[in-house]
Design goal:
The chain is α+β, with helices and mostly antiparallel strands and 246 residues long. Helix content is 46%, strand content 24%.
Length: 246
């Protein structure tokens, strides 16, 4: 059992406070529509859609907005989106993975490349940094779910591989293709989870200084503000003293 990245917690809180709700809801709705279009419009029969709806509810997206996004998938006016992954390096060789969903590949590629260049980084080929990450499922719980030992036992019983716990909560990791089953088993044992999603988990993290952190934050903010970008993952961590300065 290891401590979850404190910088991940800082980012999470920052995102909750600063992100424009309309932009956030738009990205969540896009994932719901695409998930429903690719599979069954019933979340109970479509694991990806079920996770998308759960993520939307975690961000307090209204029920009627969720239902409209699902219905949109059944109409002929739903845009055809392509899912694509970009990989590159920020300053000081920090690895960054960008997951996007777009109806215009040229526009998205041009934008993402410009963000990297503007912030002193460079976009690489697919596979250039993902070898430093593992594709896994992540299920998060609030501290109230139990102490570390309780969550660890429930995770092992559910078929998970690892747990990270600290004062902010618990994060359970499992094989990507087992996320739906592990989430269901965990929620039976611990109650409702905060979030369940597929992530790129860095195999190791690199601590950065204040100047590097500021440049990386600028790049990540630019990427996350882009309407086509669904998620940004990196492998840097910020020491407490640097986080305080930020």
């Amino acid at each position: 059992m290891a401590g979850h990245s404190k910088w991940a917690n800082i980012q999470h809180r920052k995102g909750k406070q600063d992100a424009a709700r309309s932009k956030m809801f738009s990205k969540l709705a896009k994932e719901i529509t695409v998930s429903a279009k690719m599979g069954d419009p019933d979340p109970e029969k479509n694991p990806r859609l079920r996770l998308a709806v759960k993520a939307a509810k975690a961000q307090s997206m209204p029920k009627d907005v969720i239902e409209r996004a699902i219905k949109k998938s059944m109409g002929g006016d739903a845009a055809d989106y392509t899912e694509i992954r970009y990989e590159g390096y920020g300053v000081n060789g920090i690895a960054i993975i960008v997951e996007a969903m777009t109806d215009n590949l040229n526009r998205t590629a041009s934008n993402v490349r410009s963000y990297f260049t503007k912030c002193g980084g460079n976009l690489g080929q697919t596979g250039s940094v993902s070898h430093s990450f593992d594709r896994v499922g992540e299920v998060s719980f609030k501290p109230e779910a139990g102490d570390g030992d309780t969550v660890m036992m429930a995770a092992l019983d559910a078929g998970a591989n690892d747990v990270e716990s600290d004062e902010e909560g618990h994060w359970v990791y499992c094989d990507a293709d087992a996320l739906s089953d592990v989430t269901e088993a965990l929620e039976k044992a611990l109650g409702e989870s905060e979030e369940a999603k597929l992530i790129w988990k860095p195999q190791s993290r690199t601590e950065v200084d204040l100047e590097t952190a500021q440049k990386l934050m600028k790049l990540i903010d630019l990427l996350e503000e882009d309407d086509d970008v669904q998620a940004v993952t990196h492998n840097f961590d910020v020491p407490d003293e640097v986080a305080a300065a930020l």
